[in-house]
Amino acid sequence: MTNSANNNPAKTAKPETVDERYLLRLYVAGQTPKSIEAFANLKRICEQHLEGQYHIEVIDLMVNPTLAKDDQILALPTLVRRIPEPMTKIIGDLSDTESVLVGLDIRPMT
Amino acid sequence: MTTDQRDKSKIKEKKKPIPRDVNKDAITARSQKSKPSPEILLKSPTGIKGMDEITGGGLPAGRPTLICGGTGCGKTLLAMEFLVRGATQFNEPGVFMSFEENLEELTKNFASLGFDLNALGASKQLTLDYVHIDKSEIEETGEYDLEGLFIRLGYAIDTIGAKRVVLDTIEALFSGLDNESILRAELGRLFRFLKHKGVTAIITGEQGERSLTRYGLEEYVADCVIFLNHNVNQQIATRRLRIVKYRGTAHGTNEYPFLIDEQGFSVMPISSLGLDHPAASERVSSGIPRLDAMLGSKGYYRGSSILVSGTAGTGKSSMSAYFVDAACRRGERCLYFAFEESQNQIIRNMRSIGIDLGQWVDKGLLRFQNSRPTLYGLEMHLVAMHKAIESFKPAIVVIDPISNLVTAASEAEVKSMLSRLIDYLKTEQITAFCTDLTTTGSSVERTEVGISSLMDTWLLLQTLEGSGERNRGLYILKSRGMEHSNQVREFLLSDKGIHLRDVYTGSGGVLTGSARIAQEARDMTEALEHKQETERKQREIERKKTLIEAQIAALYAQLEAEKDDLELINAKETQRDEALVQRSRDIARNRKADAYLSKQDSNEKIGKRSRK
After folding, report:
1. Strand A78-83 with A54-60, pairing
2. Does the residue B392 lie in any domain?
3. The pTM of the whole model exceeds 0.80
4. CB-CB contact of A47 with A37 (8 Å)
5. How far is B126 from chain A (nearest CA, A)?
6. In this structure, are B251 and B287 located in the same domain?
7. How far is B434 from chain A (nearest CA, A)?
């Protein structure tokens, strides 16, 4: 039940390359403006800074409500970096690119 | 005092300590008047002892209730017990969302109180959810909401069909998340969500410095706010509970003490008792026949309150032991609250006056509850006593001594506590036997805690000092509703038990002890002497009588003798007269005198005269 790609094909995130150094999960609750914005922001940041090194899973808690408990999700949207360890959480619509990069511990590639 | 008078005076006494009840009545009246809609506020019973009484049936059903208070005051426990009792007693499943303790800790903590959370979880009666928030793990970027929490909660509620929800404590969100404006908006939404779900919710909150809760949770919960307090006064901690508000219903407004023990939470609505307890006319023996005789020859009233006051060592405990012993003999159950001595010590000491209390303990008729007054606060004592009385269901309760409770609180508090306890005991028709240690020097007709007015029968044991001795005297100061002796009795304690003796009230004043014995001996000597004296006098008179009689006899004898003499003389005289006559006749005859006849006549006359 980790990959919700089949359940929600609209938000499928395909692996860019085989080298998945970053495994990211985005928890949302339905297609709210906030979750759509968060997904767009995340995708933009990843493409800019982690090209070919990431994999994004989008989990809709409306579909899988038990995951909210299992993964300790409180606020939505929440982005969880599962790999690399340690796990970090970023909550919000990810509009602040700087703090997302800090949260994911990514050196900006500019 | 007639019954009416007594009742009136009691009402006066009782009204003082519980003036808040008047307010409560007023609230009831107002709320009843201003209730326009026929809809009645539904309540969700807590099942917690005493809690439903003071809330008038439980927490508002389908609405959130805020429980606030300082650290360690029992918020989590109250909330959890609400869920567990709801699940086990009222068939209302519950969700416990913990923001502080993880599931393992919770399960362990409540196992010690006898709540098996795992079993309840397995039977789908209870869902535990631990919400872990660690600020260091979370980065905030932009707008968010707490929909995740709502989903979790909603899912948990829906899966088991929960009717009760606890959020303990939601304030943890404030320390875990930075954006307070989002949090506040979401909290408002959360409470609406809970109401929409129709669950009865408890939200706990830590006490703030100026407000009820640190983050002002009370703004969101408008229906019911309960405040828990853990006060330490003179090193003694007391837990108290107060309903700050409860919209749309009457409720007790006092601070109610509560107890947390191995059976969980219990609140004591002890001040809400009225003065409508029954009055039995059945009598119970005091165990001392002569004391029964003093009390209208029948003993105390069942369900009455008896106070024995006296200075140290006057035999108060011995009197209570006698009372207990007599009750156990009748097969009644007794509960003995001892605040000074241990159970074994009491049993040993009472054996020395010939009473074996141990046998009653073995038979389960007697239970001791020994504790130091300073062990915990007064209210806790009261709660503990209530619990013990309710579980043991005794016919007689002994409190030995009540005066010692003063060490745990002020006099006024003790008085209010005892009046509540005695009211309770009277309602339950339990005879209360209290001892009270009066300090030497103070007025005897004054008890340490000033509760004599609450008592129906008041015995005073007093030491009567004199001639280098202290002896015990027993008075009945009052005994409502029965004839009683007005006399002091000497109270003797020996290895054969308690004996009451009449004191010496003779010419030498009131005497007791050896003075009495000495006086009695003196009296006896005096009486003996008196008797001897009388006897002696009697004997003397007897002797005199004999003497006089003897004298009389002698005089008679003398008289007789004199009479004899007289007769002899008379006889002689007659003889001499006759002889004289004979001789003169002979002479005349001899002379042949012619005057013989006339002479004979005159001689005969002479003879007659002398004979006379």
Report:
1. unpaired
2. yes
3. no
4. no
5. 15
6. no
7. 58
Percent of chain B whose predicted confidence (pLDDT) is above 90: 25
| A96·B151 Cβ contact <8 A | no
Structural domain count, chain B? 4
Task: Tell whether B7 and B81 lie within a shared domain.
Answer: no
User: Quick one: DSSP state of residue B312?
Assistant: T
Mean pLDDT calculated for residue range B571-581: 87
Q: Domain for residue B563, yes or no?
A: yes
> Both B266 and B308 in a single domain?
no
Q: Are residues B461 and B599 in the same domain?
A: no
Sequence-ordered list of residues with C-beta below 8 angstroms from that of A36, at least 6 positions apart, any chain = none
Query: What does the pLDDT look like over B537-547, one tens digit per residue?
Result: 999 999 999 99
Query: For residue A25, what are the domain limits?
Result: 13-90
A76: β partners:
B145
User: A93 contacts in B (CB within 8 Å)?
Assistant: 141-144
Considering the domain architecture, whether residues B256 and B290 belong to the same structural domain is answered as no
Helical ranges in B312-357 per DSSP H: 316-329, 343-351
The verdict on B252 and B304 lying in the same domain is: no
Question: CA B493 to CA B314: how far, in whole Å?
Answer: 9
We report the CATH number of the domain holding residue A80 as 3.40.30.10
pLDDT tens track for B182-215: 889 999 999 999 999 999 999 999 888 888 888 8
Query: In degrees rounded to 5, what are phi and psi of residue B57?
Result: 125, -10
d(CA B173, CA B552): 134
Please check whether residue B126 lies inside any domain of the structure.
yes
Q: Do B131 and A72 touch (CB under 8 A)?
A: yes
Residue A102 belongs to some domain of the structure = no
In the listed set B476, B502, B528, which residue is the last one of a domain according to the structure?
A: B502
Any idea what DSSP says for residue B188? H
User: In a 3-state reduction of DSSP, which class is residue B275?
Assistant: coil
* Residue A19 belongs to some domain of the structure: yes
Q: Pick the last residue of a domain from B206, B239, B272.
A: B272
Supply the range of the domain harboring residue B15: 1-32
| Together in a domain, B419 and B495 | yes
B528: which residues sit within 8 A by CB, 6+ positions away? none
Is A66 inside a domain boundary?
A: yes
pLDDT at B519 over 90: no
Mutation site, A74, A79, A97, interface B, largest B CB count within 10 A = A74
- The separation between the first and the last C-alpha atoms of chain A, rounded to the nearest angstrom, is 36
Helices B75-89, B103-111: axis angle to 10 degrees equals 80
Domain assignment of residue B37, yes or no? no
| Peptide bond connecting A86 to the previous residue in cis, omega within 30 degrees of 0 | yes
Query: Which residue from B129, B131, B142 is facing A95, i.e. has the nearest CB?
Result: B142
**Which residues in chain A are closer than 8 Å to B156, comparing Cβ atoms?**
69
B504: which strand partners?
B511
For residue range B560-575, what is the model confidence (pLDDT) as tens digits? 999 999 999 988 888 8
Phi, psi at residue B307, to the nearest 5°? Answer: -120, 130
Q: So what's the pLDDT on residue B464?
A: 77
Contact B149 A74 (CB under 8 A): yes
In a domain, A108, yes or no: no
Instruction: Please count the structural domains in chain A.
Output: 1
Cβ burial of B536 (10 Å; 0-12, 13-18, 19+) is: exposed
Same domain, B339 and B442: yes
Contact yes or no for B191/B65 (Cβ under 8 A): no
